[in-house]
Amino acid sequence: MSAADFVCYTQDYQGWKDIFYCIEPVSWAYMGVALSLGLSIIGAAWGIFITGTSLVGSAIKMPRIKSKNLISVIFCEAVAIYGVIIAIILQTRAGALIDNKAMYTDPKVYDESLFKAYAMFGAGLSVGLSNLFCGVCVGVTGAGCALADAQTPSTFVKILIIEIFGSALGLFGVIIGIIQAGKAQ
């Protein structure tokens, strides 16, 4: 019987740490995959919603801005792609956890697997949250870009540069997620 089995099945709980210790490491890893993918897609959808409504509303006044301002929607869609990339990376690492059968017999291997799973959970959470906020940021900036372009066409490029800076927040989240996922090898 491993140390994890002893703590988890004998009800010899010492506190909150034992509750987190007894949750299967693979569950933590797949929760990271789900958070990365789910929150990134929600951020992209929210940003597209914000940008799209302003774009359609502004296009009523100035039909010329429809095609030019679609780049704001593309920036929002990139946020979802960032989440998919990290989810694929985390999915392959989680598969390696499932294949490790020694985790159920050796307490040291169980602890190492739990550390890797927490790293994947943290990577998924940080990427998901950064992409959620990035999607909203790009959506609000894209909405402002559409409205400003309808009023004054010369402001389009200036606001688009600010939108690119907002989109870089999601890319920074992906870089941090790759670094965190690197701890799960």
UniProtKB/TrEMBL annotation:
Main location: membrane
Alphabetical list of InterPro entries matching this protein: ATPase_proteolipid_c-like_dom (IPR002379), ATPase_proteolipid_csu (IPR000245), F/V-ATP_Csub_sf (IPR035921)
Presence of the UniProt keyword Membrane in the record: yes
A Pfam family recorded for this sequence: ATP-synt_C
One annotated GO molecular function: proton-transporting ATPase activity, rotational mechanism
Subcellular location: Membrane
Ranges for domain V-ATPase proteolipid subunit C-like: 31-90, 121-179
GO cellular component: proton-transporting V-type ATPase, V0 domain
Assigned protein family: Belongs to the V-ATPase proteolipid subunit family.
Protein name according to UniProt: V-ATPase proteolipid subunit C-like domain-containing protein
